[in-house]
Amino acid sequence: MALKPTGIIRQLGWRAFFQLLTHLPSFAKLFSRLIKDPRVSASPKLIVAGILAYVILPTDLIPDFLVGVGQLDDLAVILGGLKLFLRFCPSEVVQEHLKAISAGR
Predict the structure, then answer these.
(1) What are the structural domain ranges in the chain?
(2) Nearest Cα to 59, choosing from 70, 68, 75?
(3) 5-12 vs 14-36: helix axis angle to the nearest 10?
(4) pTM of the prediction?
(5) How many CA atoms lie within 13 A of 22 on its CB side?
(6) Close Cβ partners of 66 (under 8 Å, ≥ 6 residues apart)
(7) Percent of the chain at pLDDT exceeding 70
(8) Distance separating alpha carbons of residues 19 and 15, to the nearest angstrom
(9) Which of 6, 68, 78, 85 has the lowest CB atom count within 10 Å?
C-alpha cells in the first residue's frame, strides 16, 4: 500500500488540496511565532521537541523501508503533535498571532 498523491487529492478534492498548499507558509509562520513567544509555556514547546526527536531518531513505529506505510506514521505523529501543540498554547496568544499573520505583519 503506497501513499499516492493522487489518492490524497481525490480524498480532499482539488480546491481543498490547493487551499492547504497555499496556507502552509502561514502555518509555518504561526508555529514559528508560537515557539518563540515567551507567553507560551515550556510544556507545549516540549511537544514540538518530541516531534522533532521522533522524526530525526532512527526508531519508528512502522519501519520506513515499507514504502508509503512507513512514512504515514511519521506524518501522523507530526500532524497529531502539531494539533496537540496548538491545543496546549494559550488560545488568546494563538488568536493574536493569527490576526497578525492575516494582517501581513
Answers:
(1) 24-102
(2) 70
(3) 100
(4) 0.74
(5) 7
(6) none
(7) 78
(8) 6
(9) 6
